[in-house]
Design brief:
Order of helices and strands: HHHHHHHEEEHEEH
CATH architecture of the largest domain: Roll
Number of strands: 5
Number of helices: 9
Structural class: alpha+beta
Number of domains: 2
Strand content: 5-15%
CATH topology of the largest domain: Structural Genomics Hypothetical 15.5 Kd Protein In mrcA-pckA Intergenic Region, Chain A
Radius of gyration: 18 Å
Length: 201
């Protein structure tokens, strides 16, 4: 159950984006961390740019190196554009689907809900955050967890129409993965082609 547990704001500042969600510090200090953060002038190499993009994707989706490489290899064996398929595989992770459905405010919170057995897939409890949700499967909140404050707060006022590949049923507190998202629909600012180039070396 390995995951990144270090300082999140520092990582967000490194990429100049709120990849872990809204961050007050990031708006005040919109430059990289460290003593040379403000005055950094050295040009990043091509490899450095590619590596940075891979790290951004890993931190965004909460995946460590081994899992990420395995997903890339799976994407390589799948028909379609490699980078786009990689993002689709990341989007289909159960913790990410729970986050996209608005059941949790962040991916880290979604992961915790899954691990604590509050989430069901097709009516069965699944406590594996990396579980790959298939199109047509229904992801919902376990009956006894529907009254949890964290879930109620997250769902309050959440716009479920912003992700066209998901369908939400308010009365049952569950959502269906209609199909894997198109690249244009995925809002993450990730240049997946750079990741493909990095792994292809």
């Amino acid at each position: 159950m390995a995951r990144y547990t270090g300082p999140r704001t520092k990582i967000a500042r490194k990429f100049g984006e709120a990849i872990f969600g809204p961050d007050k510090v990031l708006t005040k200090k919109n430059y990289p961390p460290g003593q040379h953060g403000i005055n950094k002038r050295r040009k990043t190499s091509e490899y450095g740019v590619q590596l940075r993009e891979k790290q951004k994707a890993k931190y965004t989706y909460g995946v460590l190196e081994k899992q990420f490489r395995n997903l890339f290899e799976k994407a390589s064996r799948t028909k379609g554009v490699k980078g786009e398929v990689l993002l689709q595989l990341l989007e289909a992770r159960l913790d990410n689907v729970v986050f996209r459905l608005g059941i949790a405010p962040t991916r880290a919170a979604a992961r915790q809900l899954v691990l604590h057995r509050h989430i069901v897939v097709d009516g069965k409890v699944v406590n594996i955050p990396s579980y790959s949700v298939k199109p047509g499967q229904v992801v919902g909140v376990r009956e006894k967890a529907k009254s949890l404050e964290v879930i109620a707060d997250a769902l309050a006022g959440f716009n479920h129409s912003k992700y066209p590949w998901l369908e939400w049923d308010e009365s049952l507190k569950c959502g269906k993965l209609l199909h894997l998202p198109e690249r244009a629909d995925i809002p993450e600012n990730i240049k997946e082609q750079l990741i493909v180039e990095l792994y292809s070396k």
